[in-house]
Design goal:
By secondary structure, the protein is α+β, with helices and mostly antiparallel strands. The chain is built from 18 helices and 23 strands. The chain binds glycyl-adenosine-5'-phosphate.
């Protein structure tokens, strides 16, 4: 774990050094849990968004997109339940004066049991080698069983406290399990209190009677309130979906782990409207489609797992998270929720406007049920980067840092490098660049040795580089160098566009997603 934390630190500084992510307002010492994306970060982020958007709107002829405003009528947040219930249970340590989420402290305690079990398994695997039967070991080893039992016991108690909204019990668990503050090391805790996560501001001047409004904490409500606008103007028939990408804001209590938990972040959400009674079948379908979307990236199937919710929100009848193995453990990247007819029903109640759909096949009106898929762009960005970051030892004692990004997501697709800065090679390279730049992101670089230039492209994840040398002027061929294998091949200039386009196209990824 310590080694993983070390890698994570390196990743964070790599993000800054190579123009992926900067702390916001850095010259003023930053602003907690707010980040800016740099020149390479924005390209990677846009590619992730494009991959998601196309997977929703191109691959499904019954999913369309919208872009709703961040500011919305304040009653929307009353109807959605956010004003009354969008809270986190917080607890303070009286010695360090640090604030924590009580549920997160307990989840970390739960993860410790898993770590202990994994260590036992690892130790035994080393000891017994090929003869090791992991499943049998997990089922019979007394220390594994003891830790598994402790985990179940804590888990049951924790789930009940969450379901009962019992803040005293959450505190009691922290006390009983002797959970200490990571900063002061003490158990001197305050009571657990609820803390609303929405940012509020005012619209209009105070003389007019300003309206208290909220920065949206999720993009989903913009979809719900536009449900009938889209359905009618697009003559959509149920089942159909509405997708949206946009900023969301949460006043997170514990904002840690870089861009994993931010106060301003971006979501990609899709609400899929279905007939009542059909929602759980659609829930299963979207679970499979979404995990397929993640796995198509080739970051490693073992890095994903589903985590079903212990505590279902009062409006949900099924919910799961897709978790990704970050350097700090398996963490939620996406949520898939069966939200019943709660949101549309509640907006109907609060607005007094009908939110129903007339189903011509059933010849009746009803409030549709909704399956939601909700993924954070920034968390996705972090998972892609974390899985792609590699430090490699090369022959001759050299080392390189390479981002093995899926080519379709890489900020720059092609590095264009004249071997030397003279003899007409830069001119030839720029001629090629001016032709290819209409197709994909290219980067021209003539500074330093070719080796150093390759390293710079490796560090930002450029999947291909072409080198223009003296022979190019004669035979109209260039050398393509592959980022991951570092292998090189000679190809005619006229073929470069087709070769690269085929490899970096989003189509390759989209084709791998199960329909
Ligand atoms: N509309 C449902 C909804 O907002 P959520 O589980 O609260 O559900 C969905 O959020 C996704 O948004 C999460 O899986 C995560 O990827 C992302 N997300 C939530 N809070 C975040 C934060 N503070 N920083 C970065 N991403 C966040």
């Amino acid at each position: 774990m310590a080694q993983q934390e070390e890698v994570f630190k390196k990743l964070v500084s790599h993000c800054k050094e190579y123009g992926f992510v900067f702390p916001s307002s850095e010259i003023y010492d930053g602003l907690g849990a707010v980040y800016d994306y740099g020149q390479n970060g924005v390209e990677l982020k846009n590619n992730i968004k494009r991959y998601w958007w196309d997977s929703m709107t191109l691959l499904n002829d019954n999913v369309v997109g919208i872009d709703s405003a961040i500011f919305m009528h304040p009653t929307i947040w009353k109807a959605s339940g956010h004003v009354d219930a969008f809270n986190d249970p917080l607890i303070d340590n009286k010695d360090s004066k640090k604030r924590y989420r009580a549920d997160v402290l307990i989840e970390e305690q739960l993860a410790k049991y898993d770590d202990k079990i994994d260590k036992e398994v690892e130790k035994a695997a080393k000891k017994f080698g090929d003869a090791f039967d992991e499943q049998k070991f997990r089922e019979t080893n007394p220390r594994v069983l003891e830790n598994a039992a402790k985990k179940t016991e804590l888990h049951t108690r924790f789930a009940k406290a969450l379901n009962d909204n019992n803040l005293d019990e959450l505190r009691q668990i922290i006390v009983d399990y002797e959970i200490v503050c990571p900063v002061s090391g003490t158990r001197n805790w305050t009571e657990v209190r609820q803390f609303n996560l929405m940012f509020a501001t005012e619209m209009g001047s105070t003389a007019d009677g300003a309206l208290k409004i909220y920065l949206r904490p999720e993009t989903a409500q913009g979809i719900f309130v536009n449900f009938l606008n889209v359905q009618k103007s697009g003559r959509m028939k149920i089942p159909f979906g509405i997708a949206q990408i946009g900023k969301a804001f949460r006043n997170e209590i514990v904002a840690r782990q870089f861009i994993f938990r931010m106060r301003e972040f971006e979501q990609m959400e899709m609400q899929f409207f279905v007939r009542p009674g059909e929602e759980l079948a659609w829930f299963e379908k979207w679970k499979q489609t979404r995990i397929g979307w993640h796995k198509a990236l080739g970051l490693g199937d073992k890095k994903y797992r589903f985590h079903d919710h212990d505590k279902l929100a009062h409006y949900a009848n099924a919910a799961t998270d897709i978790e990704f193995e970050m350097p700090f453990g398996f963490k939620e990247v996406e949520g898939i929720h069966s939200r019943t007819d709660f949101d549309l029903g509640s907006h109907e109640k609060y607005s007094g406007k009908k939110m129903q759909y007339f189903d011509p096949e059933l010849n009746k009106s009803y409030t549709p049920y909704v399956i939601e898929t909700s993924i954070g762009v920034d968390r996705m960005f972090l998972s892609v980067l974390a899985a792609s970051y590699h430090e490699e030892e090369l022959e001759g004692g050299d080392t390189r840092v390479v981002l093995q990004l899926p080519p379709a997501l890489a900020p720059v697709k092609l590095g264009i490098l004249p071997l030397v800065k003279k003899d007409g090679l830069p001119e030839k390279a720029l001629e090629i660049m001016n032709d290819l730049k209409f197709e994909f992101q290219c980067q021209y670089d003539e500074k330093d040795s070719i080796g150093k230039r390759y390293r710079r492209q490796d560090a930002i994840g450029t999947p291909y580089c072409i080198t223009i040398d003296h022979d190019t002027l004669v035979d109209n061929q260039v050398t393509i160098r592959h980022r991951d294998t570092m292998q090189q091949e000679r190809v005619p200039i006229v073929d470069v566009e087709a070769i690269i386009r085929e490899k970096v196209s989003l189509k390759v990824l989209l084709n791998k997603i199960p329909s």
